[in-house]
User: Fold 5-nucleotidase from Levilactobacillus acidifarinae DSM 19394 = JCM 15949.
Amino acid sequence: MPLLVAGSATALPGLGDHSAQAAAQKVTTQTDKYSTPTSQPGFKKLAKKYKTAIPIQVLGINDLHGGLETTGTVKIGDATYSDVGTVARLGGSLDQAQNQFKKTQHAKAANTFRVEAGDMVGASPANSTLLAHESTMHTLRAMKFQIGTLGNHEFDHGLGEYNRILKGNKPAANADSLVKAYPHQASNINLVVANVVKKSNNKIPYGYKPYTIKTVKAHGKTAKVGFIGIETTDLPHLTLLKNYQDYKILDEAKTIAKYDKILNKKGVKAVVVMAHTGISSQDGKTAGSAVDILNKVNQLDKKNNVGLYVAGHSHQYANATVGKTHVVQAVYTGKAYNDTQGYINAKTGKFMHLESHVYPVLPAKANPKAKTNAKVAAIVKDADKRVAPKVNAVIGKAATNEPITGRNNNSKTMENAAGELVVDAQRYEAQKNGTNPDFAMTNNGGVRSDLAVTKNGDITWGAAVAVQPFGNILQVVEMTGQQIKDALNQQYDENQAFYLQISGLTYTYTDNNDAKQPYKVVDIKKDDGTPVSMTATYRVVINDFLHGAGDNFYAFKDTPIKASIGSDTDVFVQYFKDMAAANTPVKAPTLDRKVYQPAGSVVATSTQPVNQVQVALG
Assistant:
């Protein structure tokens, strides 16, 4: 399930809380200043002292989320780049980076490895979702990704379904006709995951291996490189119970240390980890669970050989060293990639030098020497053509032709128009179905994008599904006023890492003299101004992800279910159809449902500052 995080990077879920277990290594944050590897000073020539060493390159991505044509801005280091992204440009950028490496290093051997750190699919646009993400897997194959691991979104429809599209097997007999008609082919990605095991037998599922070993060559010499895959232990908070209940997710650091030692015994002294664990480099500082995990790895084994850690999950830019290990993360949705180049000592088999950088996926105009990958572009074009009739179907009308913006345009009270439109729609449809809801709430990460509106003010099926792509089941549950207050307070116990969009109620919150929960809710009212009683019971529309305490909202867990009203995707689409039938153009809600009142103040105001360092996780 997707997440959006706001707050200090040192305490972000997905950015981790492993620090109490491990002594800190020195963390040195790098600041990327160049937009292409061909302009990177350290990559322009072969240093004399490494002429007899074995060169190696690792090109990595994370959190693609089926973003076949996703574009936007991205901040890398101190620079912000516009119009970046798309898998066709990503493919061309990776080709440019690999060609630069070969030319500079005179590397005739296949010493470049393309790797991914999870969440390649899920929470995706329609040209991936409607084709069961097989179009995304086709592009990864065309871009020649060799090694990958699991993120939380690979579990969205059950790990068995992800394994199907990974291997290119046929879909189930009841699959949608679009999926059945789409070509099925293996991705050619060697999936490695070391810390996911079945509860029934403690074995890694589907025949996946914990690591893979590759050989690099140069100057008539060879060396071995090990690649370990790691899933986040936060998985139970990030997907539905049915998707993870058969598995145990083992401690990341202990697992890395274990397999590093196994690789060492096999003669592998150069190790790369791909881990779906978050990290962020901001304002010259780097923090997150990847840092905490590496601290613990070094505590467990100071002589470990982990030289590179390709991170994911927190959707942030990161480039740093933690002790001797380089850590990188290339934002998300194909807007950037990381390029690590270095050398292995042929005698010891160890990394003797590594240099890591993160680069934007620039448009052709900004980087014409990176040729758009024509094969990847053709896959995307074909996917668009297949889904176009459904995606472009008009289902509603907006009051203006402006997009209704989502979580990238939060108010200071962490409200956004698309999010509040989602919960308004859920409450409306639940009322229409006779389930008598009082309120509706959804997690911030469940609202995936802005709601796009055409120049004519039309709202299409594809635009609606981009906002609500998951198909989670909406349930009407019964909660006491106290449980509702508890849920609202749980927004503030992790630096607003996870927050709610709300409908049918307003509330006031204020400062709280507690570092672990800096704000607290002081009163809650219905829309009509009636106070919410702590002892009374109310009906609340939530998705089944929240009902399982997703995003750490434990106040929702196991509350009595009174009704179900269908999937969030279908309900959102139906809402626009209903508004169109009623000749009611859809408007962006006013962001005034959460009111911040400073401690000691009598007059409530929603304009006071609230911690808002936003980090998207997924």
Observations:
- Residues 1-21, 602-617 have pLDDT under 50 and may be disordered.
- The domain at 37-382 is CATH 3.60.21.10 (Purple Acid Phosphatase; chain A, domain 2).
- The two ends are 6 Å apart (CA to CA).
- The longest strand covers residues 221-230.
